[in-house]
Amino acid sequence: MELIELRELQPEPRPGRGRLERTNALRISPARRPGPGAHPDPRLTAAPGAGHRFEPRRRGLHTWCDLCGDFVWGGGRKSLQCRHCSFTCHYRCRALVRLDCSGPPGTGDEDDGNEQALEKDTNVDEPSEWEKAELGQAQVEQRIKEYNSQINSNLFMSLNKDGSYTGFIKVQLKLVRPVSVPATKRVPTLQTGRSGPHTQGVKRRTSFYLPKGTVKHLHILSHTRASEVIDALLRKFTVIDNPRKFALFERSEKDEQVYLRKLSDEEQPLRLRLLAGPSEKVLSFVLKENETGEVNWDAFTLPELHNFLRILQREEEEHVRQLRHRYARCRQKMQEALATYTPG
Hints:
Helix content is about 25%, strand content about 20%. It has six helices and 17 strands. It is elongated and about 90 Å long. The chain is of the alpha+beta class. The protein starts with a strand and ends in a 5-residue tail after the last helix. A hairpin with a 6-residue loop joins strand 5 and strand 6 (about 70).
């Protein structure tokens, strides 16, 4: 089993950014190495990507391009999305796509297709009542004892002297769209996984689809945030996509229905794991694309925000111009009809 361990996470300000970059200490067992560079996706070819059926993107207004990694401002007029695999890109990037389509979701995987039919994304950020419970120190200690007595592995929770606790969470990666890593001939190593922040300015990128059913275990602290879990997973695979492209969801099963809820950046997954107990049906964690259309504008630099404001103003002016033109034509047709109208 491959583990990712998050020790003390000391936030460091990202140069030129309003967002904090976290430094994650990874402990990965040496049995396996990160695979994106070692086993490139066979669908990545030198020829134009085959099988895609691109259409103007309708869901949500803002996202990131799966080819160049740049932010996509606006909706259907700015980006395309493959109907089958959800590959999303700028209009200008369409001709540069080299990754073949992975096919419609659930292709060749009947069980996965059945689960998708049962899934219900509540799209509600508000936690359930049991998730809001505040535990005292004695209650935390008792819950940890109960939790450890119910598991059948060595993935125990441990109480620290300062009152915090450590433990393990399992995250299933259910990504439909491809992820991007630096284009390099060298196999990614542990050191490359640790080096530097998620580079926004990287131009040489290569994309691949993560295998279905990819699962990672993380050893985290009770105060580790959901955003830090996402960061650690991306670093593990040396993914250079913007972390805001992804979201961590909690998954629960009830009455033969699967419910999903997106966790906020500040929520603490290990705390939720302790409150829910070890049952995967009661609570599990899933990493998915962040398709809610929400954008953390604080993550952008001032020049980027000023540029977005200029784009917004141009689009507003163009929209108003088209609207006025349409009403003017309608008014003209009515006036022409009135001019030719003869009573009786």
